[in-house]
Amino acid sequence: MPDVVPEQSVIKTPEAVTPKPAEPKPADKPLGAPEQAIIQKIKQDSNPDDALRDIAEAKPTNTAQTPDMPKRPGILERASQLLNHNVLQSVPIHNEDLGYDSVAGTYGFTLVKAADGELVFTSSGIWNKVDRVGDRLIRKTDEHVIKRPTEMLKRHPRRFFQQVTTEAKRARGETEEIVENADRLGLSEYYGIHPQGVELKKPELLTKGINLWDIYTVNNPALSEIDRLSALSTAAGYIRQVHDTHGAIGEVLTNDIIFQKKEGTMVSEPVLNLPDIVYSSQKYSSEQLKNATEPRAVDLMDFLMSVGASEVRKTGDWEKVKQAMNAIISGYGESKVIPAVASLARRGRLTLDGRITGQHNTVRLSMDKQEENIALQMRQLVIAECGNKL
Fold first, then answer.
1. Is residue 84 exposed (0-12), middle (13-18) or buried (19+ Cβ within 10 Å)?
2. pLDDT value for 150
3. Which of 15, 47, 131, 198 to pair with 4, CA 20 to 30 A apart?
4. Could you tell me the pTM of the whole model?
């Protein structure tokens, strides 16, 4: 709309005109106490990434505390103390046939036995809630939604806090979202809705199945004899089948594959563990999840990186890491998804920069447990092996 110009044709005698003072611009709404505390921490701390870590881990910052005051429990600690008696204890997963306890867990959910005897993944408990909230926040840096969060927080704090309220491309879902994701992926015979959470319809999936993560981490003769390369090829073929039939999964790590059968050194009939990472409906339509290359490439890149880190930890042999990656690539088969993985890696995805922006990825891909930073070597290997399929 054009500016309104005062009409002057009616003025007959010139006279001094005092300009009307401009209306003061409404003051910005002040940032809340938590935001102010974080900004203050940024200014004082020699390592500003710590403030972002506090956000991601939902740690309250109390700048009013003085050394002379007794330390008060944080809000999460007080809530945890209040709710602790209502938190259900996780049911241990024991493989009945092979006689070992699984170490594969599900973050943000606890496996419990409900009153009706069913096994249920429940989101009850303060720490499960913290995990899901933190997951949604820090995943924003995983896919370059916020490329330089520390700089943005220091220079444009208001823009930063506006940005972190937007949806991440994918994040740990709530119960209904996970059940919908399971249905979309053709897993309705394994997972369903329950008053307490997500029901595991086939308990034998955990009590008799073999998690790929356990093959890498549990010291058990029956697991040690399994041909890992064959297992990885079988798992990759299953991922390809899910991609072709149902679309992108959300996240595929080493602990997301469970084999239902074992014969000698071979495992077979893989199925997905609880599909708890859900793509945002604001970012992807059902059609895009079914047909788009990028989200499927992200699934496969996650799997390559996670398995590679597991292989490094188990063997310390980079030649075996290369063999493991090639087993996955071969098992997945010819597809435009393979070169797309190399393209993503060349562009810096996933974020693995050694700072807070890459901390979540290094943790979920199990790269944080290595004696050395393996992220760079792993990315270069992914680019080399997947790039060969161009």
1. exposed
2. 66
3. 15
4. 0.70
